[in-house]
Write a structure and sequence with these properties.
Blueprint lengths: L32 E6 L5 H8 L10 E3 L5 E3 L25 E6 L9 H18 L6 E3 H4 L13 H6 L19 H7 L6 H12 L10 H15 L3
Length: 234
Amino acid sequence: MLAACAPLPPAQRTALPVEVRPSANFDERRPNFVILHYTSNDNADAALRTLTDPIAKVSAHYLIRRDGRIVALVDERVRAWHAGVSAWGGNRDVNSASIGIELDNDGNEAFTEPLLDSLFALLADLKTRYAIPAENFIGHSDVAPRRKPDPGRRFPWARLAGRGFGLWCAPPYGAPPRDDGITQLAAFGYDVTDPVAAIGAFKLHFLPDGDPQQLTDEERALLDCLLAKKRAGG
């Protein structure tokens, strides 16, 4: 069961003299992405100390322990500080549009089954409540390709996509497009300011054993398949 979320902070407005006339015509923040991370720590308690330390200035909405217990850290309705300098699909304020989930994993180990079971349940809950599209379940490495490798090469993206969280294509693929793949990467969502970093992030997610610096014809065909699924809504 999810732990109770913290209450919303008090209303904030300018310090200038104002007449306050509250209006009922507003909505809470509606997240449209889920960003997955690994903690990189040997245990969840060490990660939680960092995620709750005011000096560290880093947080996430949830942390899932190796044994499957879910810790709620930040109210879903407010902005957690988990993605940092990041971009996806032209959005350069990923924190404001996303839910951040930390997974208790050091980056070099397989993810435990209890952790994955809880992750699947939490993602299903978030997807239902916020109508998050399948293609918007992505990793920290996807939105920060020059800085972050998490959730890492051991993360089971194909299993997630099989449950409706993320996109996946299995071979055989169709014929590769004629372009070099950079336009495809940008259309898929990657920030291609640094093309090599974008290629590396794509390969880490979909082909972790491939050359992280270039795209083969088959890999461009895979990307074309993924784009078709994205256009079709997953």
